[in-house]
TrEMBL record:
Keywords: Carbohydrate metabolism, Glycosidase, Hydrolase. It comes from Eleusine coracana subsp. coracana. The lineage of its organism: Eukaryota, Viridiplantae, Streptophyta, Embryophyta, Tracheophyta. Pfam families: Glyco_hydro_100 (PF12899). It catalyses: Hydrolysis of terminal non-reducing beta-D-fructofuranoside residues in beta-D-fructofuranosides. Invertase that cleaves sucrose into glucose and fructose. This is Alkaline/neutral invertase. Residues 54-63 have a biased composition (Gly residues). Residues 39-63 are annotated as: Disordered. One of its GO terms (biological process) is sucrose catabolic process.
Amino acid sequence: MESAASMRKASSHASLADPDDFDLTRLLNHRPRINVDRQRSFDDRSLSELSATGGRGGWGGGGGGGGMESYESMYSPGGGLRSLCGTPASSTRFSFEPHPLVGEAWEALRRSLVCFRGQPLGTIAAVDHSAGEVLNYDQVFVRDFVPSALAFLMNGEPDIVLNFLVKTLLLQGWEKRIDRFKLGEGAMPASFKVLKDPKRGVEKLVADFGESAIGRVAPVDSGFWWIIILRAYTKSTGDVSLAETPMCQKGIRLIMNQCLAEGFDTFPTLLCADGCCMIDRRMGVYGYPIEIQALFFMALRCALLMLKPDAEGKEMMERIVTRLTALSYHMRSYFWLDFQQLNDIYRFKTEEYSHTAVNKFNVNPESIPDWLFDFMPTRGGYFVGNVSPARMDFRWFALGNCVAILASLATPDQAAAIMDLIEERWEELVGDMPVKICYPAIEGHEWQTVTGCDPKNTRWSYHNGGSWPVLLWLLTAACIKTGRLKIARRAIDLAEARLARDGWPEYYDGKLGRYIGKQARKFQTWSIAGYLVAKMMLEDPSHLGMISLEEDKAMTKPVLRRSASWTV
Ligand code: GLC
C-alpha cells in the first residue's frame, strides 16, 4: 500500500487529461435495454442446458431471463442510473426484501460509487471513515470492481460497467514507466482514482500500473479481469457491439500479446513476480501461481469468444488455441493433487534425466510438508499453489481453484473433487468465515524468509491464511456450477451471521477466521458486493452464465502427440 499523495506524484505521467477522445456517448446511445430486444451473445447455450443447475435457468442463460424484474424490486433499493451519482439511495422504495442484509448491502455498495464527470465508473475499495490513513483504499481497483460489476449486471444496471470498461481501456493506452523502464503496452492498471485539477476545475483520472504499489509489481491479473468483465457484460446484456469496437478488439489483443509473447519459457504457464495478483505482497507466490494460471486460462477462453476473426484477430485466435491446449494439459497433469498423486510424489525418484522422466520437475519427496499428509482426504483434490523446478507449493489457494472450476480448467471430475475437499476440510478451508484465502499459514522461520518478515502477513492473518468474505461469491459460483448448493448455503449463512454486524470487514484472522482482521478495513466494497453476488446467484443460478464457461471438449483430448510431448 502507498499513500495517496506519493501515488499522485509518482504516477502523474499516467494521468488521463482528457478522456473525451473516445466516443463514449455513441456507445451509450445504442446500449441495449436489458431484457428488451435481447440479442444472443457470443456463446448462448441451448435451452436444454439451462436445466442443468436445477434452478430457474442454467449457467448458459446469462443474466437476462424473466426473473430480472422481480430482482429489481427485491434487490435494488434506490436502483437506476440517475440515483447513482449524487442522490442518496433509499431502501424504503420497495416493500419486500428477502433478507435485511441485502438492502443494507446495496446501500453500502452505492455509497462506494465513484463518479467521473457526472458518470459512475467504478467503486472504491473501502468506505471506512474510521480508519486513519486511507492509503490507496480510496481508489477503484480493477480486481475489486469485479464483484461490483457482476452485482450491477445482475441487477440490470450495465451502464456503470460499460463506463468502467471504456475508461480503463483508455488508461491502458497510456505510456507506463517505472523509473527508466517501460511496461508492456497491454498492461492494465491495478487501480485508479479521480482527481480534481484545481487550476482547470476539471476532473482527471490518475492510474497506478504498479509504479506506486508496494514492491513496484505490475498487476498481472488486471488485464485478465478486464477481459472477464467484458465477457460478463456481453453475456449479460446480449450486446456484442462494445466488444466488437476496434478499440476493445485492440485492447484484448494487446493483453493477449503481452502474455503470449515468446521467450525462454519451457512451460505454457505464465511466469510471474510475487505480489502480482490479489495477494499483492510477498507471500512466496512468485513463479507460476495458480491464481494467475486460472485467470490466464479463463481470459484466453473469453478472448477467443470475443475476438473477431479478421486479419489480426484470426492470427491471435490461433495462438490462443495453441496455448489453451498446452496450458490445460500442463495444469491438469502437473498442478493437480489428490491422494493418489500425493502418494506417487511421495515415492518419486529424483535426478531423472531425459524424456522418460516421471518426476519431470525433480521434486524431492522430502519437500512435501508434514501438514499435507493429514490434510489430504481420501476423497477430494485440488490444484496446488505453484509448480516449478524442484519446487511445488502445496498450499491451497481458494481463488485459483474456484476460477479453475468456473473456467472449466478443472475437468468435471476435478471440479467435483475440489468441492469434496472443501466439504471434507470445512473447518480448515471455511471455518467460521468463508473463505480462507490460502491454507495453511506459514510461520516462524519460513514466514521470515518467505514474506521477508512482513508484519501484516503474520500467521493466520491477511494474505497468510486469513479469511476473505469477498471469496464467498467465487465459492458460491463454483458450488452452483458443480451442483453443490448445500455448501453455498452453508457458507452464506455463516457470512450473514457476522458480516453486517462486524461492518463488512476486508478480512478475518485466526485459524477459524473468528476475529476481525488486525488491520482490516471496514465497509470493504468487495466484501459487500461479493455477498450480494452470492445471494443473487443462488436465487437465480442462470446468472452464473456471466462468469462461467462450459467445458470445451477439444481441450479434454490434448493434441500433443506422444513424440512431441514428455508424456509417457
Ligand atoms: C489489498 C488486497 C488487494 C486489493 C486491495 C484493495 O491490497 O491484497 O487484493 O485489491 O487491498 O482492496
